[in-house]
Amino acid sequence: xxxxxxxxxxxxxxxxxxxxxxxxxxxxxxxxxxxxxxxxxxxxxxxxxxxxxxxxxxxxxxxxxxxxxxxxxxxxxxxxxxxxxxxxxxxxxxxxxxxxxxxxxxxxxxxxxxxxxxxxxxxxxxxxxxxxxxxxxxxxxxxxxxxxxxxxxxxxxxxxxxxxxxxxxxxxxxxxxxxxxxxxxxxxxxxxxxxxxxxxxxxxxxxxxxxxxxxxxxxxxxxxxxxxxxxxxxxxxxxxxxxxxxxxxxxxxxxxxxxxxxxxxxxxxxxxxxxxxxxxxxxxxxxxxxxxxxxxxxxxxxxxxxxxxxxxxxxxxxxxxxxxxxxxxxxxxxxxxxxxxxxxxxxxxxxxxxxxxxxxxxxxxxxxxxxxxxxxxxxxxxxxxxxxxxxxxxxxxxxxxxxxxxxxxxxxxxxxx
Amino acid sequence: xxxxxxxxxxxxxxxxxxxxxxxxxxxxxxxxxxxxxxxxxxxxxxxxxxxxxxxxxxxxxxxxxxxxxxxxxxxxxxxxxxxxxxxxxxxxxxxxxxxxxxxxxxxxxxxxxxxxxxxxxxxxxxxxxxxxxxxxxxxxxxxxxxxxxxxxxxxxxxxxxxxxxxxxxxxxxxxxxxxxxxxxxxxxxxxxxxxxxxxxxxxxxxxxxxxxxxxxxxxxxxxxxxxxxxxxxxxxxxxxxxxxxxxxxxxxxxxxxxxxxxxxxxxxxxxxxxxxxxxxxxxxxxxxxxxxxxxxxxxxxxxxxxxxxxxxxxxxxxxxxxxxxxxxxxxxxxxxxxxxxxxxxxxxxxxxxxxxxxxxxxxxxxxxxxxxxxxxxxxxxxxxxxxxxxxxxxxxxxxxxxxxxxxxxxxxxxxxx
Lengths: 417, 417
Description:
Two copies of one chain form a homodimer. Chain A has 15 helices and 13 strands. The longest helix of chain A has 21 residues, at 312-332. By secondary structure, chain A is α/β, with parallel strands linked by helices. Chain A has two domains: 6-45 and 311-416, Alpha-Beta Complex (Aspartate Aminotransferase, domain 1), CATH 3.90.1150; 52-309, Type I PLP-dependent aspartate aminotransferase-like (Major domain) (Aspartate Aminotransferase, domain 2, 3-Layer(aba) Sandwich), CATH 3.40.640. Chains A, B: Residues 77-408 form the Aminotransferase class I/classII large domain.
C-alpha cells in the first residue's frame, strides 16, 4: 500500500495543467537525442560561465559607488535580504529605457522567476470561490497551472472581441472576474500580437469594467526582421489598470531565475499592491536569491539598462530562425493542406494539420523521427482535440534547425499520406 | 479611492501571521542603528564575495569530472533546468555525511529556500476545508504563514505529550490532521530540543495515527559547547513517516536561497511524494536558480559534503554567544524576577519578564534603547499576551553583543522599576 493516497492531495496535482507541464518536461528527458522545437528556451549560443563573476563584480562595484562599505556590499549579496528585492531600482531604469514604462521602484517586487510573480498575483486576487481569472486562449501553461495551485478557475477568452461577453456571462453566473491575463507581444503559444487599436480598446474595457489586466511580456524584445515594436499595455496605462509580469529568462540569463512584477495599484488598507504581494512572497520564497539578483543587476549595468541592445545578436538569431521556418514550411507544403502562422516576432510558430495532434503523436515524433514540439491541445482549457502544434524557433539554429524541420516535415508528410 | 479594496484580496493578507513577518522585517529597516538581536540570520563574520566564483568553478569542475562537455556544463548552470534540481545527488551525500540520513536523490526536491519547501508540502497536503496542520507551539512564523497562504488552519500543540489529545479532538470535530510540524533540534523560537525517547515516541504516535511528521532542521549543526547531537527524526524514520525540510541558509550561504525537501513517501498514483511536490514547484518557481544551486553545490564539494566541518568556526561563535548571553543575564538578574532558557544549541534564547511584551515595547526598545528583539507573541496562534521575548545569538558578536545585552538589560530594568 502506498504511503499517501493521491485523492487526499490537492486537486491541482491530478489536473491536466500540472500534468501537461510535467509530461512536456519529462519527454525531453526521455528522448535526449531528439532535436527540441518544444521548449521556449533562449539560445545558448552566447552563454559564458565567466559572465557570472563579471556581473557579480559589476553589481558589487555599483553598490560601492552608492557608498556601501565592504561589509555592507557582502551583506547585500550574501545575506538574507529585502523581500521586494535589491535590484528594483535597476529594473525600474531598464523598464524606462526599453519599454518607456515609468514606475516607482517601490511598486516592483523582484521574484524567483516570472512564474512566482504570476503565483503571487493570482494568490492575492483569489479571495473566495466566486473569483475567476480570465485568460486569453490559448494560454501559457504556467498561468493556468498557477491558477490551479491557488484554486482559481480560468475562463478562456479567445479574442479581445469576446472579453465583454465573457465578463458579463461570468457575472451573470455569480462569478467575480478578477483580472484578464494577456501576452500582447508575440504570445506564447499563439505567436500572435495585438495591434495598437486593440491595446487601447482593451484598456478602455478594463477601465469601464473595473478589471485588472495581467500583462506578461517575456518576448517583447524579439520582433521579427523589419518589425517595429508596439507600446506595451503598461506603457499606455494611465490609470494603474495593468499589473506587469516581467521576466529576465529570455533577455537576462535563465539560470538566474529572476523575474518581477510591477504592481503600482493602491490598496484600501494603505500602500501598494506590490506591498501585498511582498507579504505573500515572504511566505513563498522569503526573498529572491540576492546572488541571482546581483547577476541580473550586473547585466543591466553592463548594458546601460538596455536589454534591447544587449540582445541584438539573440534578436537576429530568432528573427533569422522565424524566416527559416517560414521558408521551409512554404517549400514543403505548397498545397495548402498544412498552414502555419507567420508571427511578427517572438519564439513560436503554430502549424495546423488535417489530422489529430496529441501526446501520442508527439511520442511517435520523439521516438521515430527524433524531433520534439508541443501539441497545442496543452494550451486549451477544454478537452476538444486541436489539430495544431507549436514549434519554438529559439533553441535550434542553423543546420540543427534545418534537420529538425526536415524531421517534422517527414512526420507530417507520412501522416498526410 | 484606492484601486483595490483589501477585502477583495486573499484573507492571508490581513492575517496576523503575514503582518507579523512584515512588521518584524520593517522595524529593522526603520531603526538601522539599533543592534539586532531579532533576526535569526547567520553570522557575517566569514562572508567572502570571492567564495561565489570559487564555488561555481568547483561545481563546474565536478560536472566536467562527470563527463559533461563545455556546452553541457554551461547549459546546466545557465539554462532552465530540472524541476527537482541539479544538486540533489550532492544534497543526498551531505545528508548521509552530516545526518546519517540515507535517501534516494530522486526523493529530494531542491527549493528556493526552505520556505518554498514548506509551501509546496502544505499546498500538496491541503485538499479540502477539513484539512488541518498541527504545529508545535510556539511555532516559526514561516510555517504558520505558509499555511495561511494555502488556506490550511493550524492547530497548536504545546508539547508532544499533547499530540494525541489534539489529533483526537480534531478528528472529533470532523477535521483531518495532515501532518505535525516540528523542529526537534534547537527550535525557533523556543530554543528547545526533543530528547531521544520523545523522538522515538513521536515516531510511534505518527505510525499509530497515520500522521506525517514535517521535520524542520535549520539549526541542527549548531549544538552548544560540549553538547552531542541527537539523531534527527528522519534518521530514525524507518517507515517514511517524516518529510524532512532542509535549509542551507545557516550552513551554506543565505544569499543563495537554496533549500530542499526530502519526500520519499510513495503515492498511490505512482512515484514519490517528491514528484508531486515537483509538479507544484513547476507552477511556483519552475526550478531553483541553477546558478544559486551551483554555489551551494560548490560549497558541498569544497567541504567534502560535511557542512559540520565547514561550519566549525560558526558553531564556535554561536556557542560562545549562548554562553555570553547566559552569563550576562545571570549577573544582570540574580533575583529570579526575570528568567530565561539555556538552550543546548541553536540561535535562540527566550527571556520571560513580569510585564507585557508587545510590539509597542519593541518599538520603544528600538527607538529609545537601540536594540531589536522579537516579542514571543508573534509565534502563538492566539491573541493571549505573552510575557516573553526571543533574542538571537547569531548576528551580534563580541562587544556588539555585550552592548546589545546592556541595552536590553536597561530596558528590562526600567520596566521592572
